[in-house]
Structure formats: structure tokens, C-alpha cells
Specification:
disulfide bond, binds 2-acetamido-2-deoxy-beta-D-glucopyranose, 5-stranded antiparallel β-sheet, alpha+beta, transmembrane, Methylamine Dehydrogenase, Chain H, 5 domains, 29% strand, glycoprotein, single chain, Semaphorin, ligand-binding face of the semaphorins, domain 2
Length: 835
């Protein structure tokens, strides 16, 4: 039994070790935590508040909802109040038509999917309008419908999708609307187009040329003034990888705002359309190939526009990375380089892509081709897919989500103490948490996670209001605003520094953690989080808080009772361990749980003081002291308690199964109501209220129930009593349970190890076979995804490796097996490398 306990402890330690550099959020705030309060805008008459637009002064939030457009006052940081509401519903006839088409009633509304500022007085909005898209002009102040130049509501075709579940993108530049969406009811005709153009600057759209777009999912668009280009981000089928059934690739496409189409060839069609692959991949691993969201981060003041960064969230089509996502950053400089480089050419007879061998007649993607010759424009028409992929900056992943995949991203540059700039990312998980991460030289650090939704939301939107210091999240359930930081949550210099939040610094005079903008001489170390180097001031306030905590709590127990001590502490990055004065804790007697708790059986040898210590980033602090004393037995002299006892007494105790147990828990817990639970007559009712007070003072915020503990830590210490709950033979059961758990953990650990292995060494045959269940990549796919496209064309043109493929097919074996043997024989090099 002792062995099983030891084994159990060992295994739980091992499972904590991670096999990948996935970062855990340091703090976790479940919904309702007082440390991170949310402002929620909800209105019983307003649904699907998903499209967000912030006014230029950031005082008003415009919301595109279901059958409505709203304006909300967000000038106060702690409240969101509705100003105006514009009802924009389809008529009865429209609804009847929609139902006739066989559409669900709940989808036959007008879902506003485009909401853009047009000029200083007006906005432009488009909605699905019961599967018959429409657009309107809106007076921004009164939020009333305005008449446009045509004098009546405009058709929304190719500006807004028909289907509210289809993704689209739109952006206005100089009063013109650039959109990426589908232009038909069935959603099969994707188009990138420009609308609301005037005079000789005509509306332009994409030519129906084969291959310009391949079943795309539009994500976002952005305007880069220095380039005079609008960039579109989307994912689509990567037809250049033609040996894979359906490989999704992520793309960036560009058009020039000066484009007005060609004169004969490409009339009223883009002459400047070009696209390239965005490749989010780490080393030899499979890429995260499906773009979910992407955001533009402007360069720091004074830097070149080329330093503009695009932070994208990508998920993977392959099983190995299912449920995770990666963040990759791409620079405008790299994007420009790819677009000015070589292009692939599509053979319209064979529908195969190849690197261009013919002479270069024009530079595709160049602005100002509208006056070019037909010959040039015909060339442009065939050369629009850049040969090279855009690689992420630093050649790797910026961040990999800890376990849940991310759906939305926002980015911000924050000036910390001493004028240092940091990049902050806000990432929304599918499950409804907001992660705030700071990017540091040696990787990302997730400062905190805040739960914003109870239920996962299908459609959502993320927006930053930098001047108001708020993150706004639109969803079908309402709009939520979260302050970017809450420095006052950090109660000591150590916590303030360990948080590594660029918004927060420790004020050594006022002795509080406060917003960095309030004061110049705040203590902060975002890069190092080095407490000992920063917190040299020992302040009266922190000393008193410290001494109160360190005075310790008395825990009264009966002999042979199982004692559980909770170690308070909020940080998921801290290692917590227990100590007794003058002695090490033998794992034969003590069990330390994953949550930092300590369990043991009260015997004369285990009575006495216990210290819980936490170590984070090289800084150790004592989080709690307990004095375990025998209950109502003044007869136990201190000498007896301190005398070392041997373990046999413990084991003997287990055998006789006469233990009762007591939980020293952080929350008031009701006595467990097991029918055969033995109730100790000494369990007097007046213990209960005191118990709850006591336990709260010990556990700063690890979960919802524990949130307010921090305050009590600073406040008075409460006399210790706690609520005991007794169980017959619980120890026997717990030891049996420990056995079971350790067996389970053994299995889990083995699997875990295997999983790590399969992630880091993707080429081994066994892990490959595992991955195939969910659709894995063939070596050719891997090769091609690495961007060695030249090899690809050789394959298309029956180069050496084409034969090996044919051979496999004739053998009638799975193409995977020979590939694996080749992989092994070539020592990890890919088989289709041309000799
Ligand atoms: C910040 O944290 C403090 C301490 O937990 C809490 O009292 C306060 O309400 C929090 N403020 C916000 C805006 O969440
Ligand atoms: C609208 O909101 C409801 C829940 O309130 C959701 O079930 C539905 O999917 C949403 N519709 C769209 C188009 O987002
Ligand atoms: C903004 O656009 C609307 C609609 O085209 C137009 O009526 C209005 O005059 C414009 N306002 C300004 C200030 O240009
Ligand atoms: C295009 O060419 C025509 C005549 O060749 C000329 O009148 C026009 O100004 C040119 N447009 C631009 C934008 O250069
Ligand atoms: C923290 O700073 C101290 C003194 O500046 C230094 O000795 C120590 O190595 C640093 N610790 C870490 C973890 O960087």
C-alpha cells in the first residue's frame, strides 16, 4: 500500500510535465470571479449581437444584430447603455419567400453582417435579409435609415452572404466598400469585389477565371495605406497540391485601391489580384493550415510600414493537432517579398499548376496595370498564385493553445515601465475563455484567462477599445466588455512582478500594484519576472500582511484522522511544496495532491507545524502555516509531538481501519451524507460557521469559491476551528482508491508518453498509423507543405518520384507502408526528394 501511494505521487508529478511548449495561463478567473468583473450588455429584444463597430472616438459601440442595428454608449468603463436602436426586419412577404425556399424560420431573419463607417456622418450596413441580402445607409448620430445616391435600399448581392452561417469580410476605404463573400444563394460563387465607387473609379470584381478562388472561407480584410492595397485573408482548397483530396490552405490575397480594371481584357475586373499561401508551421511538424482569425498590428511609431505584423490563429486539418490551435505572425515585408517574387502558372488543359517557365511579361500583383496591353493582362490572368509561401516571422509558432482551440484574436502594443514596448494578444477560446498573453523573447506568457461565456458561442467578434482600456466581445448572447487589466488584484510586490502584466507596476510608496500610466517610477519586470531583483522595498503594509499569514492556523485533529491541508495560491505556474520544521516529508506518510494539498494520517508523529511554500520563477514564498494539534487533549506534551515516530504506527492504523477523516478545505462543505458515516459526538454544531471563516482565509482564488480569500489574508486571521466530517473506514477506501488511481495513472502516463512521442517524432510508423485514423498527411503532403513546391511540379510532370507512386498503386498496398519504410531508410529524409 505504501508503495502504491509512492507510485501514485510519482505519477501525478510526472503527468504535470508537459511534452510541448504549450503555455498555461498563470491565473484563471471563472465567470463571476470578483477579481475580473465583466460588463454585460443584454437586451431581451435584441438577438445575435455579433457584428461590432467602434466609433472613432471609441465612445460609441455600433452593433449589427438580428433585425436591428444598435448604438451603445461605452464611454463609461463600467457600464454599457443603449442609445439608439434601428429596426431593420424583412417584411412578411420576404419571410414567406424565405420559408418557401425551405429555410429554417430562425435563419429567415435579417442578420447584419456588414457594418462599416462610410464618412463622417454615415455608416453602411448589409444584412442577410431572409436569404435575400440588402444594404442600407445609416445616419450614425440618429441611427435612422438614410437614402443613398440611388434613393432606395440597395441589393446586397456580393456584399453580404445569403446564409447567416457563411463567413464574409468587408472594409471601407475612402467611401468605397471592399468585400469578400459569396454572390449567390447556394453559396458556390465566391467573389472579391469593390462597391460604391464613383465616376471613372468604377466598381470592380473578380473575373470568373478558373482558380482565382477555390471554395474560400473569408476571414478578414485590411487596408495598408503605404501600399495602397487591400489585403484579404481566407482559407480555401489548395489545388496546387493536387494529389491530396482536399487540402485546405490559408491565403492572403491583394488588390490595389487604384485598380479600375483593364480596357478590353479584364474590363471592370481586378488587374491586380494576386494570392499567396500563409504557412503556419513549426519545423518538421504538420502545419496548422486553417485560418480562423487574423489581426493587423501596426508598427511602433517611427518604424517603417514594412514592420506591420499580422497575427493569425490557425487550426489543423490533421488529427494530431485536433482541438489545438497555433498563433503565427507574418510581416508585411515578407508578404511583399512573396508577391514581388515568382508566380505559378495554371495549365488550363491539364488544370495543373507549375512554376512559370515562359518569359515574364509583367509583374503580377503590381498596381497601375489598368492601362496595360491585352497581352500583359492575359499574362496577369494566368499568373496570380505566388510561387513561394509567406513564412511566419521567427520561422515558427508564436504560441500554441494549451488545450482549447482559439477562434478570435486581437493584438495591441503596450508601453510598459521604462518605455519598453510589449505585444499583447487577446485570444478567445472556443469554450468561452479570454486569454491575455504577452509575447516575450523566450516565448509567450499567458498572464490570465477570464471566462466570458457559460456556453460556447458559434459566432463571435473581438474588438479592442484602447482608449477605454476594454476588450469587447460580441456574441449571440450579448456584448461583454472586460477591462484589459485589474492591477489591484495583485496584493503584494511579488505578485505584481510575477504577473508580468505590462499594464501593472508596483508603487513602492503607495504600496500597491497599480496601472502603469499613473506614475513613472513603478516596479515592473515583464521580461524576467524577477521578484528578488525588483521587490527590495520591505513595506510596512506587506510586512504586516506577511506576519499575519505567517502566524499560522491551528488545526485540531483526533488521532488516526486523515488530515487534508490546502495550500492557498492562485498561480498555475507556481510549484507548491510542503515542509515541516526540521524534517523532510516522507512520501510514505504524506500524499501531496496536484492542487497543492497535503494529506496524511494524524498520529503523534505527524502532529506539529506545516509550511506550504510556493516557488515561482525562482522566488519562494510561504503561503501558509498550519499547526496540527490533537483535539481537546492538553495532555499531549510538546515533547511527545516533536519526538520522531516511525511509520509502522501509521500502517498499523490503516490495518485496524478505525480512522475517521477531516477535510481542511477552503470552502464551507456540508458533512458528507453517506448513510453509514459515523458521526463523531464531539462534532458540535458551533464548529461549522467558524470553519467556513477559517478556511476561506487560506486559499486565494483558485476557483470561484475561493476568490475573496486574498482580502482576508490581508485582514485579520480567524481563530481556527473547522468542520469535521467522519467516515467509517474511509482510509481503507482511500488507499484502495489510491491503488486504482495509480493504476489508471500508469496507463495514462504511458499513453501520454506515447502521445508526446507521436507529436514530436511524426515519422515513426506506429504514430503515423495512429494519426491516420483521423486523416493524416502522406509524405508527399508533408513535403509539399514545407513549401518545396518545385519538387511538386516534377511530380506532376512524372519526375523520378512519380514512378514510386505508380509502383505503390500497382502493389495494391496502402501507400503509407512503403513510404514509411522509405522514411526510415532515408533517415528521416522524405522519399520524394529528387536525386
Ligand atoms: C479588481 O480586483 C479587486 C481585488 O480582487 C476587486 O475587488 C475588484 O472588484 C476588481 N476590479 C475589477 C474591475 O474587476
Ligand atoms: C442566433 O442566436 C442563437 C442563440 O441565441 C443561435 O442559436 C443562432 O445560431 C444564432 N444565429 C446566427 C446566424 O448566428
Ligand atoms: C456621407 O454619405 C452619405 C451617403 O452617400 C451622403 O448622403 C452624405 O452627404 C455624406 N456625408 C458627407 C459629410 O460626405
Ligand atoms: C490610361 O490611358 C489613357 C489613354 O491611353 C489615358 O487617357 C488615361 O489617362 C490613362 N489612365 C491612367 C490612369 O494612366
Ligand atoms: C534575479 O535577480 C538577481 C539579482 O539581480 C539575480 O541574482 C538572479 O539570478 C535573478 N534571478 C533570475 C531567475 O533571473
Amino acid at each position: 500500500m505504501v508503495h502504491s501511494v509512492t507510485l501514485c505521487a510519482c505519477l501525478s508529478l510526472l503527468t504535470v510535465l508537459s511534452c510541448h511548449s504549450r503555455v498555461l495561463p498563470r491565473l484563471s478567473f471563472p465567470k463571476g470571479s470578483p477579481g475580473r468583473s465583466l460588463n454585460v450588455f443584454k437586451n431581451p429584444d435584441v438577438y445575435n449581437t455579433t457584428t461590432l463597430l467602434l466609433s472613432s472616438d471609441e465612445g460609441t459601440l455600433f452593433i449589427g444584430a438580428r433585425d436591428a442595428v444598435l448604438s451603445i454608449d461605452v464611454s463609461q468603463s463600467d457600464a454599457m447603455t443603449m442609445k439608439e436602436k434601428l429596426d431593420w426586419s424583412p417584411s412578411e412577404k420576404d419571410l414567406a419567400d424565405c420559408a418557401m425556399k425551405g429555410k429554417m424560420k430562425m435563419d429567415c431573419h435579417n442578420f447584419v453582417r456588414v457594418l462599416q463607417v462610410l464618412n463622417s456622418t454615415h455608416m453602411y450596413a448589409c444584412g442577410t435579409f431572409a436569404f435575400s441580402p440588402r444594404c442600407i445607409y445609416i445616419n450614425s448620430k440618429t441611427l435612422s435609415m438614410a437614402t443613398g445616391p440611388s434613393g432606395k435600399p440597395e441589393e446586397g448581392r456580393s456584399r453580404c452572404p445569403y446564409d447567416p452561417y457563411q463567413r464574409n469580410t468587408a472594409i471601407t476605404v475612402d467611401g468605397e466598400l471592399y468585400t469578400g463573400t459569396v454572390a449567390d444563394y447556394r453559396g458556390t460563387r465566391p467573389v472579391i469585389s469593390r462597391h460604391l465607387s464613383e465616376g471613372s473609379h468604377v466598381d470592380v470584381k473578380l473575373d470568373d477565371t478558373l482558380g482565382w478562388l477555390e471554395d474560400p472561407t473569408f476571414i478578414r480584410s485590411t487596408y495598408v495605406p503605404s501600399e495602397e492595397k487591400v489585403y484579404f485573408f481566407f482559407s480555401e482548397t489548395g489545388r496546387e497540391y493536387d494529389f491530396i483530396d482536399k487540402l485546405t490552405v490559408s491565403r492572403i490575397a491583394q488588390v490595389c485601391t487604384s485598380d479600375v480594371g483593364g480596357q478590353r481584357t479584364l474590363q471592370k475586373r481586378w488587374t491586380t489580384f494576386a494570392k499567396a499561401q500563409l504557412l503556419c508551421q513549426a519545423g518538421q511538424e504538420l502545419p496548422y493550415n486553417i485560418l480562423q482569425d487574423i489581426v493587423t498590428l501596426s508598427p511602433p511609431e517611427g518604424s517603417s510600414e514594412d514592420e506591420t505584423l499580422f497575427y493569425g490563429i490557425f487550426t489543423s486539418q490533421w488529427q494530431v493537432n485536433l482541438g489545438r490551435s497555433a498563433v503565427c505572425a507574418f510581416s508585411l515585408k515578407d508578404i511583399k517579398k512573396v508577391f514581388t517574387g515568382h508566380y505559378k502558372v495554371l495549365n488550363r488543359d491539364t488544370l495543373k499548376w507549375s512554376t512559370r517557365v515562359q518569359e515574364q511579361i509583367a509583374s503580377p500583383g503590381e498596381c497601375g496595370l489598368h492601362n496595360a496591353s491585352d497581352n500583359t493582362l492575359r499574362f496577369v490572368k494566368d499568373n496570380f498564385l505566388a510561387d513561394k509561401s509567406v513564412q511566419p516571422v521567427t520561422q515558427g509558432l508564436t504560441l500554441v493553445s494549451p488545450d482549447k482551440s482559439y477562434s478570435n484574436i486581437a493584438a495591441q502594443r503596450v508601453r510598459g515601465a521604462r518605455g519598453r514596448d510589449y505585444t499583447l494578444l487577446y485570444l478567445l477560446t472556443e469554450s468561452g475563455f479570454l486569454h491575455k498573453a504577452v509575447l516575450l523573447k523566450n516565448g509567450a506568457h499567458i498572464i490570465e484567462e477570464i471566462q466570458v461565456f457559460d456556453q460556447p458561442q458559434a459566432v463571435k467578434n473581438l474588438l479592442l477599445s484602447v482608449s477605454k482600456g476594454a476588450v469587447m466581445i460580441g456574441s449571440s448572447e450579448g456584448v461583454i466588455s472586460v477591462p484589459m487589466s485589474n492591477c489591484s488584484y495583485y496584493w503584494s510586490c511579488a505578485e505584481c512582478v510575477l504577473a508580468r502584466d505590462p499594464f501593472c507596476g508596483w508603487d513602492p510608496v503607495m504600496k500597491l500594484c497599480t496601472d502603469i500610466h499613473t506614475h513613472d517610477h513603478l516596479v515592473q519586470d515583464v521580461d524576467g519576472g524577477n521578484v528578488s531583483a525588483q521587490c527590495t522595498y520591505v513595506t510596512p503594509r506587506s510586512r504586516s500582511a506577511q506576519s499575519r499569514t505567517l502566524s499560522g492556523e491551528v488545526v485540531s485533529v483526533s488521532l488516526n484522522e486523515v488530515v487534508h491541508l490546502q495550500c492557498p495560491g492562485a498561480s498555475h505556474l507556481a510549484k507548491r511544496h510542503w515542509e515541516r520544521l526540521n524534517s523532510q516529508l516522507s512520501p510514505k506518510i504524506y500524499i501531496q495532491s496536484d492542487d497543492g494539498g497535503l494529506s496524511f494520517v494524524a498520529t503523534p508523529s505527524t502532529l506539529g507545524p506545516y509550511l506550504c511554500q510556493s516557488e515561482e520563477n525562482g522566488y519562494t514564498q510561504t503561503l501558509g502555516i498550519y499547526h496540527v494539534k490533537q483535539k481537546s487533549s492538553p495532555t499531549v506534551p510538546p515533547a511527545t509531538r516533536n519526538r520522531p515516530h516511525s511509520t509502522p504506527s501509521t500502517e498499523a492504523g490503516i490495518k485496524t481501519s478505525i480512522f475517521t477523516t477531516r477535510l481542511i478545505t477552503p470552502t464551507p462543505t456540508e458533512p458528507r451524507t453517506e448513510p453509514d458515516a459515523e458521526v463523531d459526538p464531539t462534532d458540535s454544531p458551533e464548529d461549522s460557521p467558524a470553519a467556513s471563516t477559517h478556511s476561506r482565509s487560506f486559499t486565494p482564488s483558485l476557483g470561484t469559491e475561493k476568490q475573496d480569500s486574498r482580502k482576508t489574508e490581508l485582514g485579520e486571521t480567524h481563530p481556527l476551528t473547522d468542520k469535521p466530517s467522519y467516515f467509517q473506514e474511509l482510509v481503507v477506501v482511500s488507499v484502495l482508491l489510491a491503488l486504482c488511481i495509480s493504476a489508471l495513472l500508469t496507463i495514462a502516463f504511458h499513453r501520454f508518453g506515447h502521445f508526446c512521442h507521436s507529436r514530436t517524432v511524426p515519422q515513426t510508423p506506429s504514430s503515423r498509423r495512429d494519426a491516420e485514423k483521423g486523416g493524416s498527411a502522406t509524405p508527399q503532403e508533408r513535403e509539399s507543405l514545407r513549401g518545396h513546391s518545385s519538387r511538386l511540379e516534377k511530380r506532376n510532370g512524372q519526375a523520378p518520384n512519380g514512378q514510386s507512386h505508380a509502383g505503390q498503386a500497382h502493389n495494391g498496398t496502402s501507400p503509407i507502408m512503403p513510404s514509411n519504410s522509405m522514411l526510415n531508410s532515408s533517415n528521416g529524409h522524405l522519399p520524394n526528394t529528387p536525386i
